[in-house]
Every structure is written in structure tokens, then in C-alpha cells.
Amino acid sequence: MYETIAFYTFAISTTILFLITVMSKNVLYAMTALASGMVMISGFFFLLGADFLGVVQLIVYVGAVMALYGFAMMFFDATRDIKEKHQNPALVFLLGGLMALMFVVIFSAPIIGDNVQALYPIVEGVGNAQAVGMVLFTKYLVPFEVAALMLLVAMIAGIILAGKKMDYSLTTSEAADEEINVEEKLQADIEREKGEA
Amino acid sequence: MDTILSILIFFPAIAGFVGFGITKGSAKIYGIAVATIELILALLLWMQFDTSNAGMQFTEKVALIADFGISYNVGVDGISLFIVVMAALITLLGIILLRPDTKNMKNMIISLLFLEMTMVGVFLTLDAIIFYLFWELSLVPMLYIVGAWGGKDRVYAAVKFFLYTFAGSLVMLVGLLAMAYLYHQANGVWSFSILDWYTLPLTEDQQFWLFLAFFAGFAIKVPMFPFHTWLPWAHGQAPTIGSVILAAVLLKMGTYGFVRFSLPILPDASVTFIPLIMALSLIMVIYTAMIAFAQKDMKQVIAYSSVSHMGIIMLGVFAMNAEGLGGSVFLMLSHGIVSGALFMLVGVIYERTGTKLMSEFGGLAAVMPIYATVFGLMLMASVGLPLTIGFVGEFLVLLGFYKISAIGTILAGSTIIIGSVYMLALFKKSFFGPVRHEKNLALKDLDKRELTALIPLVLIVVWLGVYPKPILGPIDNSAKHILTQMEAKAINPATKETIILSKKEAE
Amino acid sequence: MLEIGVNHYLILSGILFSIGFMGVLRRKNLLMLFFATEVMLNAVNIAFAAIGNYYGDLSGQMFAFFVIAVAASEVAVGLGLLIVLYKKYGSLDLDVISSMKG
Amino acid sequence: METLVYIALFSPFVGSLFAGLLFGNSPRKMFTGWVASALIFVTFVSSVTLAYHVATVGAIHVQMMDWISAGDLSIPFGFVIDQISVTMMVVVSLVSTIVHIYATGYMDHDKSYNRFFAYLSAFVFAMMILIMSDNFAGLFIGWEGVGVCSWLLVGFWYHKADRPFEENPSISPSWAANEAFIMNRVADLGMLVGIFLIYWNIGSLQYDVVFDAMPHLADGILVSIAIALFIGAMGKSAQFPLHTWLTDAMEGPTPVSALIHAATMVTAGVFLVIRANPLYSLEAVHGVSMFIASLGTFVAFYAATMALIARDIKRIVALSTLSQLGYMFAAAGLGAYWIALFHLAAHAFFKALLFLGAGNVMHAMDDELDIFKMGGLKNAMRGSYIYMGIASFALAGLPIMAGFYSKDAIIETAFNEGTYIIWGMLVITAGMTAFYSFRQVFFSFHGEKRYEALGFHPHDMYKYVLIAMAPLAALAISFGWFMGYYKDFIYGLNETVQYEMSHTTHHWAWLLGSIVIALALTGIFLAWKKYAGEGENAWKRDEKFEASFIYKLLENQYYVPKFYDQFIVQPYTIASAKFWEFDKKTVDGTVDDLGKACLNIGDTSRGMQNGNLSSYLNWMGVGAMIIVIIAVISSVIG
Fold first, then answer.
1. Domain ranges of chain B
2. Which fold has domain A1-116?
3. What are the strands, taking DSSP E only, across D113-177?
4. Chain D interface test: which of A85, A93, A99 (most D C-beta within 10 Å)
5. D–C contact: 3+ Cβ pairs < 8 A
6. Record: contact A95-D628, CB cut-off 8 A
7. Residue A23 pLDDT more than 90?
């Protein structure tokens, strides 16, 4: 019974929070709602018996990722409301709604899983963290190491991209830049001259 | 001697590569030399050819992708032999006729040599994938020839030619793949060998769709009405050599495809489709002949007349008896020779005057008597005068098709009337009457270069008109062979009834 | 209705995914787009975990782990790029950053 | 004897090659004409020898080589020399020899003299193939061959410009040549169909095989074959409605008209019917034969009416040829094949003579053709006058002359068969024939010397030419005397060619003959009265008559050429232009539109690539949606 209550509580709250994330004009609100949504999601994991995953969710998402977002936002002007031009909002809602409807329709049908064999069954009597560890470091060792490497690479990339000088374009050469964005270039030049003056 | 077919196919290509290293001035000589050697090889093949054997000869087979049954597989029979010889001959004469001051002569020669490889390849290969490969490759040099040396709308014409034929052959490719798939289903192994396909039994339904797929590729190439409109453009814009090869050899690829693929592989569908083919061919014969009459440009007259004659060839292919089929293959050759010569002749006058409009000429017979004589002879061959090459094929085709439909034959036979109408109108407008323009009085008659290119064709036109046996014999053998295969393979008794192997047996 | 089965989780996951999807369609600000993708990733994670639970298999969780790992690296690199973009254009609005007009 | 056959066949070919290949492009060389003439003479001599051989020993059948063999079809180059072909050979080679010699004089100022002889000899060669071939395909070779030579020769003076129809009904030599060729091709198609029918029903094209098998065929097939072959014959022999080319073909040089369009080629149709006599005498095709006879009679009458008022000297002769061809067809259609053949031979002699005489007149009058501008030439051109007179007497069918025997026999045949309408029309036509042929003679040789006012200085042809024409004159007079011998000769061929008058006809023959002679004499007398007078009796133009409807109708050849122009040529031209338009606009246009549609779709959808990531995402979303929807639908369906 408590599972039902918990599920619906978490479900309703995540839905609302994520809707706020998606619809809010204010970045800060959006980020806050996202972070809260993440926390709520970890609740599902606990409900589903994936304790370790829930913890990781909390640590990685709510802790690390949100912190990163937080830091990143310092570079941007986060206080101002975001102005966006919505060309055809109706279409967006229609598509989103349709998508949701589809998923509801699809998943309403009972799942038939008789012929599915559990490849890595959950070992009875062992805690979730242990079970995860056993699978992760045996069967999924190589992907795990690759993921680790990927994270390392991502970290280095993040540092380099964010840490370079402000007036230096990393992604494009100057020549190509000129061709593509003559106007912006001109404006930037004017601004720089102003600054020097 | 065992590898003579491979040599025939690849010698021009290798020579083409070597040609990149030739100096500009000697390019034409080089081209003539290569084409001569190729022709000699082709003639050698003919000498070695066993005329009593109706099947494939000189076969070579090298597996390329064994898992999918794709192999380099070549062979020659009575039908392909002469088309290859003709392709080699026409290429040689075309190169001879090239003006020495053609721009980028070297590139032209190289294009022509590559084109020769693809042409010979198409007619000799027995593997569907390799066939398709050569089939498509042949577009490329032609695209260059039209696009680089053509008239003022050359790019439009070249692109149209390329895209149109390419679109059709893609559908054909689907058909080829489906065919291989069906073969795999039936036998458990992949094979793209046409000879294997000949033995594969197919239901009528499968044949129906496969026929349509093949039809898309071949019909556009032929070109059958209503897919013919690329041809006048291509001819109108192509340089002389381009038109000559296009009309003489490339169009024959379409009808050859029908003979090699559609008939023996899909006998029941071929019979089912006779009414459609007949209707389209008759429209081709009559409608395009009338259009030819309305033309003002000499070259366009001949271009449309090509379409008209291809209609007759198509009728012969679907006559379902040895007379018609043999006749249509012979007509392919004769049309190649005659239309090639006619395009050369138009090229000759175009070089001199810079125009192809008939209204600019008149009275040329008095100014250029030899030219007029050669033109007149080719014209007579084109309208199917007995004792010229044009008659034999046309007569046999009409004779053969009479068994299928008397009315159809009478309508198709009107080609001898309306064919002479547009041809004689052309001749009258350009060669008869008073000389209309002062400047035409100074025109020079054929020179040595042009005579060298044209005299062999004249001789062939007369020789094969009087004594077609050396060529008709092997063709007839192979045509009967194909019909035997068809009859053996046909599943519908009505088909067996339509195919007439021998008249005596039918009675 | 009261008995929470795998279907419930999947439906929820679908709805959340659709919310994220809507965000992706609707948002013009790159940062907000990132948020929307995070929503979608999380929605998928729920589905993984639910299915894994349903079959008594750990593979679902494993995939969820890797999704989280990928999400983390994506954020790291993506934010770096965002910063570079912001430096270059002074804005994160996609309507401003449209240099690939064909 | 075989060698002789080949000599007869190929010596004209050699002559043609000699004149054409060696000297075709060089300036006029008199000896080419003589060499060609000599070679034709060789043919003549061989033909006569062969005729003797046929008469004494029997027919000769030779096979030279295979021509076409495909499937079961096997066509050899084979030649058969029997009574029919040898008759034709002798006639053709004799007339050809004389025309060749005549042409050496007639064409001696023409710069294309050598070319002329190349064509003329080539024609004789083709004609020989036509006659001698032992199968229908070989016949067709000759058939088309003579067609081409006729095209070349009618269009010999190709440099002449087109003139409007009102000025010159045959427009120009090149136009007339094309007309002749194309109209013949129409008929050739019929003949081809006949050949196809024969092949698919009998399996061979050899005459002997075909005629042996004929009686066993179904009636319907026989009738079809008979009709198809006769359509072929109609074209070559210029029977209505394919007759207009013959008068226009008079644009060619006169020797050509004499040889091709009077004596030989135009009789090929008659020859075909005679050749196929085992077919046409079958009971099943009686209807077709009757049709042939009726059409022949009609054409005889029809052409004669036009000849009554024609002004062009060559046209008159051409129309009389047409009329006489009608007689031949009447005889052949009624079953009197040998009489038709006999008339063919007789006609060849006197008509060639008539034409050559007309040629002399033209030559003398600087190519003036209008008989209204001639008159009183008899003193200036005595030789030609005599020849023309003889030929006209023969044509009119006066006693002793060749025409009397042959034509009278035809008329008798019509009586004998009980086809009295045909008989009546033929008799009337005989009267008209006499009138128009003498009208022409009197117009040109008697009466006032109208040419003097126009500044002509006529002079007769070279002596040797006139002498060369003498054999023709002799035969025009005497050929009929040999009718009995000829009958014995040709009866040796087969039964169907034999034809005997019934007893009653024999009984009344004297009366029938008298009627014809009386009518002919009346015709001549009328012509004399009207056109031969001098001084105050001299002929004057009758403006009122020339304005009458009948005159206009005849002058315009019953408006048949007009009809062809209005209802065939022009619609064809317009339809061609329309088709071209259609081809460009609709057929090609559709293809272009397809290409343009692709281009436009690309151009329009290029807007999607606006560089805005957000809109890309939207498109992606739409795509994802579509995929999901498809997935749902397919899972529901399948």
C-alpha cells in the first residue's frame, strides 16, 4: 500500500517539477526544479529495489551535475528572464502530447515476457550494492572502464573548453569565421575599439 | 585464344590508360591504331567462332565474390558476336572521321576507348552484376562526349541522357537483385550468372513483375515510346562521333537486353506483354516517323528515324519465331551501320557549313555528287531497299511478326511508306532543286578522310544486302537456340503455342 | 490501479520523456535544452530500472549506470562548449546562433 | 544455257557499273552510252536465244546462290526462264536496246550523260531480275529496284525548281520522283503482306511450290493473297487510285518515259497477275479477278477521257499508256492471260515508238510540250511524222497493225465472257483512243505552223537514231501477224494460261471487229476534221468549252491530285507538325516537369536548412513522431 502512495507522490511531483523545468522562463527556477526532480527520481529507484542506482543518482546528478550547471550559470546572466520566440507553440504541444499519448497507449498493454530469460539475475540474499558490484566488475568490466575513460576525457575537455582565453575562438579558424560572421565580427571589432578607447 | 574475350573487353581500356601519356598531336593516330587492333581482334574472334554451335563460346569464368555468386563471366554467341564486331568497326570509323582539329583530341580518344570497353563488355558478359556495371559505365564516357564536345545545349542534353537512362537502369538493378534472390530461394546458393538464371523456373506472377523491372531499364535505352525524348536531345547536341556511336551501338544495348534477359528468363511474361510491346512499338514506328517528317534539322530527322526503326526491331524481338528474332538482331546490325553512316554524313555537311537545317541547303547533288551518292545509298538502305542491308532485317521482322498480328504487321509495314516519305523529303529538300545559297556552290566533295570512313560502310551495306548469309546463319542458330530455351522454360501452354520453333512443327 | 506494476513505471517514464521531448522542441535557449535532455535521460533511466526489476535482471540497472555516466560527461563537455559559444556570441539563443543557413 | 541466262541478266549490270562507277563523276563521254547500248544488245541476243530454247526444249530453272535464310525461310537467287518470262525478256531487252541507242542521241548535250546511262542500265538489270526471278522475294527485289531506278530517272533533272501545281501539275522532277516512289511503296506494302501470307500458309516463296500448293488452301486465304498481290500490281501499273504518279513521272527525260513508263516497268503489275495466273484462275478468287477486269476497264475509260483534252504531248501518251494498261488488266482479269501478255508486248513496241517520236518533237521544239504551240511539223520532221503515224495507227487498232490484233482480242474476250458492260466500255474507249492519239498527231504535224510565231526552228533527230527506231516501227506494224505462233508458243506453259474463244464469239468476230474499226475510224475522222485543217479550217481555241465544267474536270484529272493534296498530304503534314509539338510539349514536357518537380521540392525544402538548431530539432521531433506512430500502427496491424 505504501508503495502505491509513494509511487503516486513521486510521480506527481516529478511530473510537475519537470514541467516547471521545461516551461519556466527563469533559468534558476528551471535548474532548481530539475534538481528537485532528480531527487524525486532517485525515489523511484529505491522503490524499485535499485538502492545503489538511487544513491548514484543522488550523488552524480543532484550533486555533481547540478553543481556543474550551477557553476556554468555563473558565466551567463542567469538573473534575467530568458526571452524566446516560439514560432508555433501549438505544434510543440501537439507533438509532445501525441508522444505522451503514444507511450501511454503502448505501455498500457500488458507486457508479455515469458520468453525473456534473466541474463544476470538478482542474487537472492545479497545486497543490491554487492550484486551490482559483482555484475559490473565481471560482465561489464570493459564498458565500465571505457565509461571511466570517457569521463576522464570529458573532464579534460570541459576544463580546456571553459578555461581558454575569452577572445580566442577555439572551434573555427579566423578566416572561416570572417566569411560566416562578417557582421558579428564587425560589431566585435567596434566594441573592442570602444573598449580600447 | 581462350582469353580473347577478356582481351577484347579490356584492351581498349588499358590502351585508354596508356593514352594519357600520349602527346596531343599523335592522339588520333594512337586512337586509330588501338581501334584497328581491336577490330582485328574482333574479326579474329569471328574467324575462330564455331558457327554450328548455337550456345556460348569462349566462355571464361572467374569468381569475384563467391559468396554472392558474382563472377566475371564472359561468353559470346551468334547474337553478341556481330554486335561486338560492329561496335569495334563503328568506333574505328568514327575515330577516323574525327576532325584533326577537334579540341582536346586526347581526351576524346580516351573517352572513346573507354566507351568501347563498356560497349564490348555489355555485349559479352554473362553475369548480371558485371552486365549492370558495364551498362552504367557506358553512360559516363558518353556523358563526357555529349557534355564536352556537344552543341550549345549540350549540358542539358547530357544530363537528361544520363539521368533518364540511369533512372531506368536502377529499376532494372532491382529486378536483377530480385532475380538473384529468387534463384537463392530456389537453389540455396547465390548466382548472378545469366546462364544459371535461364534454368530457373518462375511463376507467372514473378515473371510479370520482373519483366516490368527489366522493361524499365531496357525500354528507356531502346528508347521506346514514351521514353524516347532524351534521344533527340542527345543526338541534337552530341558531336558527330557521339551520335554515331549512340545510334549504332548504345541503343542496341536496350534491344540486346530484351533478347538476352527478358525473352529467355521470362518467356511467359514476354508473351503476356506482346500486346503492350506491340502497341508501343507501333506508336514508335508511326508516330516518330511522322515527327521525323516535321523536322527542319537533318540530324533530328535521322534521330527520330532511329526511334522509328528501333520500333521495328522491338517488334521482331517479340515475334516469338526465329524469322522475327533473327531478323531483328540483323536489323540491329544494319540499323547500326546505316544510321551510323547517316549521322557521319550529316556530320560531314555540318563541318562544312556549320548548319544542319535543310532549308539552308538545296541542290547539293550538283555540288557534291559523291556525297549525294553515298547519302542516297544510305537513304535507300534506311528505307529498306532490297539488296541493301536494310531490307533483310526489316523483311524478316515483318515476316516474323505477321504470325503474331496481321494488323500490327500492316501498320508496322507502313514504315516502308512513311519511312520513305521523310527520307525522300529530306533528300529532296537538301540535295535536289536549285542551289539555294551562293556559298553552297563552293562546298567541297568528300575528302580522303571522310571517304576512308564511309567507303567501308558502303561496301558492307551492299555486301550484306546481297549476301547476308555469313552473318544471318549464326544469328539464326542462336535465335533458334533462345527460342528453344524459351519453349522449354515456359510454364503456360499458351506461351508454348505462341513460340514457333519451326513452321513445319507448327502445322 | 492500486497495484503498482511495471506498466505504471513505463507510462510514467513515457510521460516524463514526452515532457523532455516537448522541452527539446520548444526551448530556444541552449541551457534549457540541456535541461530538457536531462529530463529525457532520467525518464529513460526509470524505464530501465523498472524493466530490470520486472525481469529480476541487473542489466537494466547497468544500462542506467552507463546512461548516468554518459549524461555526466555530456554535461561536462556540453557546458564547456556553451561557455565558448556564449563568449563568441554573447547569447545562448538558437535564433541568434544560426550560422549554418543553407 | 545457264551461262546465257546469267549473261542476259548481268550484262546490263555491267553496263551500269561501267558507266556509273568508272565514269559517273567524269565529264560526258559518248562511248559510255555506246558500251551500255552494246551490253543491252547482248542481253537482247541472249534473250532471243533463250526464247528459241524455251520454244524448242523447254523452260530453264537455275539457282545462283542463297540469299536470305532464317528460321524455315529460305530465299535463293533463282531464275526461271519460261514462256512468260522469256516473252518479257525479249520485249524488255529489245525496247531497252533501242531506247539506249535513242538516248545516245537524245541526251548528247546533257552534262550528266554518263550518269544517265548508269541509271538506265541499272533499270534494265532490275527489270530483268523482276522478270526472271523464280520466287516472290526475288520479284520483290526487282520490283523495288525498278522503283528506285524510276526515282532516279524521273528525278534526273533534279536541279529544276518546284513550281506551283497550277503552273505545272507535276511541280518538279524531284517532286514527281518522290511521288512515284512513295505511291509505289504504298502498293509494295500490299505486296509484302501477300508475300507474308504466302509464306505462313505455304512455307515457301518459290513460284512452283506456291502454285502447286494453292489449290489446297482455304478460300479466304486465297482471296487475301490475291487481293494483296493485286494491290502491289496496282501501284506499279498505276491503276486507279494509285495512278497519279504516272502522268507526273513524265518530268523525266523522254527515253525514260518511253522505256520505264510505257514499255516495261508499268507493265510489271500486269506481268505479276499473269505470272500468278494459277492463283487468279482459281474458282475461289473469281471475284478478285472480276474486280481486276472491272478496274482495268474503268481505268482504260477513265484515262482515255483525260487524254481527250490534254495539251501536254507527253501526258497524252502517258494517259494512253494508262488506258492500255487498263486493257491488259481487263484481259488478265477475264482469264485471257496470254492475250494480256501479247497486248503487253505489242503495246511496248508501239508505245515506245510513240514516246520516242514525241521525244523527237520535244527535242525539235526545245523541250516545248504544249501541243497548242505546235502544228505543221510534218515537213520539218518527216521521219518522226511517219513513225508517230504508224504508232498511232497501231494504238488506234486499225487493221494489219499490231494493236488491231491484240486489242481486238481483248475486246472479243470481254464479249466471250459475257461481260457486256466491260465490252461496251472497252469498245467506246477504243474509239476515244483513236481520237486522242490522232488529235495529238494532227495537232503537232498538221495544221497551221503555230510554232513559227513563237520562234522555234524545228529539226529532226539524228539519222542514226531514226534508223534505230525502225525495228520498233516494223514491229508496231507486224507484231500482230505472229499472234498464232505466239499462241502455240505460250500454250506450252500450262493450262491456266490457255484461253480460247467460244464458237459463238468466233462466229460474230467479224462484226465485233468491224464495230471497233468503225469507231476508231470515226475517231480519226473527227480528229482530222477538227485539228488538221489549215487556213480558215484551222483549229481555234474554244474558250467557251475550256470554261465548261467537264473540261475543267478533265483538265484537273478529276481533281484526284487535288484530293490527295487536300486530304492526305496536307493533313499528314499538319498532323506531323502537331505530333512534333505534342512530343516536345507533352511527352518531353512531362519528363522535364518531373525533373523540375524534383528541383522545386529541393528548392522549397531548402528552407528547412535555415541554420537554426531549434527548427532542426523540431523537424527531428516530427520525424521521431512519425517513426513512433508507424511503430504503433505496425504493431497493431501485424
1. 273-466
2. Four Helix Bundle (Hemerythrin (Met), subunit A) (1.20.120)
3. none
4. A99
5. yes
6. no
7. no
